[in-house]
Design goal:
Shape: elongated
Number of strands: 12
Strand content: 15-25%
Low-confidence stretches: 1-51
Distance between the termini: 131 Å
Oligomer: single chain
Number of helices: 5
Strand order of the largest sheet: 5-7-10-9
Radius of gyration: 47 Å
Helix content: 10-25%
Length: about 325
């Protein structure tokens, strides 16, 4: 033991530990007293353990950063997200062939199914064998004051717009068809259309009275039957309306008796029957003084044929119900 030194625990040459991997970062003490040697005490846990901990943390951080980058692209193996370029190419080729096959099967199936369909006529029509009824103006609740034009103008404008296709000048180009006979054109490529002039509606045509009776408190209601391809109603179809109350309500029908002539049947579809217009029945409600300021429920049905009009599951099958409230 040298002069001036004190008792120490066993000493270890710290310079030899410099060769141990990451622990080469050990800081050794250089003292002026012993310039040729550097020592540290093994018992000094406050010094050795922190250094080893720092080395381990640095090593783990480097490994973590290297592992994260290698998951994206590994330069040693050339892998991208865990697969080589050839592996990715095989996967892409497999899915290209697989989905191409599925697309081909789907296209072939659709083409075969389309070959079974008629371009002009729906294949299945069992659910619409009987037509429904609708009214114009397009409202099931008609309410207005006959003295205030602003309240009934919307109904008048709707009727006028709807009847534009029925103008006599346009209908002159169509065929004059014989009454009470189906206009059969099954073997004709270009289907013709029977005339239906708005002048047939007389007081409800909007020609003599541009207000369709609304200004007088006796409004006109147009009833039409929905189009059904190939429909041939038997018997003598016509429209009949009643007011749901104890006393009957006076009405006028145009054409006479609300007739739906057979010459407008059958209908061949919008692609073949381009300018087809279905027949109309105008119902003029002849309201009296006692009928004003009260709500009337009107029901119209197609009668005199084999068409259904009393199915409780469908309120519009062969019939239509609407409400009218006119005030003075």
């Amino acid at each position: 033991m040298r002069r001036g030194s004190t008792a120490h625990a066993p000493l270890v040459d710290c310079c030899s530990l410099e060769q141990r991997g990451k622990t080469a970062h050990l800081i050794y003490f250089i003292t002026r007293r012993w310039p040729n040697q550097c020592f540290f005490e093994l018992s000094s846990n406050w010094f050795i353990h922190p250094i080893h901990a720092m080395a381990n943390k640095e090593e783990k951080a480097d490994e973590k950063q290297s592992s994260w980058k290698d998951n994206i692209y590994n330069p040693r193996t050339g892998e991208f997200i865990g697969r080589t370029a050839s592996s990715w190419a095989l996967i892409f080729l497999f899915y290209l062939v697989f989905y191409g096959f599925l697309a081909g099967m789907f296209s072939l199936t659709m083409w075969v199914m389309l070959q079974t369909l008629d371009e002009h006529t729906p294949k299945y029509r069992d659910r619409v064998a009987n037509p429904g009824l609708m009214i114009r103006p397009r409202s099931l609740e008609i309410k207005f004051n006959r003295s205030i034009p602003q309240q009934y103008n919307k109904y008048v404008q709707h009727l006028e717009s709807f009847l534009q296709l029925y103008n006599d000048s346009l209908q002159e180009a169509n065929e004059v068809c014989p009454d009470d006979i189906y206009f059969e054109q099954d073997n004709v490529e270009e289907k013709k259309v029977c005339q239906f002039k708005r002048s047939v509606l007389r007081q409800c045509s909007g020609l003599a009275d541009s207000n369709f009776g609304y200004s007088e408190g006796q409004p006109c209601i147009l009833v039409k039957m929905n189009r059904v391809i190939g429909l041939r109603p038997r018997g003598d179809p016509h429209i009949s309306c009643i007011a749901k109350r104890e006393t009957p309500l006076q009405m006028q029908y145009f054409p006479t008796e609300g007739k739906l002539d057979k010459s407008y049947f059958p209908y061949y579809g919008k692609t073949l029957h381009v300018n087809y217009v279905q027949p109309l029945v105008a119902v003029k409600l002849l309201l009296m003084e006692d009928d004003y300021n009260s709500e009337l429920t009107i029901e119209c049905k197609v009668e005199g044929s084999d068409l259904l009009n009393s199915d409780e599951r469908d309120k519009f099958l062969g019939r239509v119900t609407f409400r009218v409230h006119v005030s003075k």
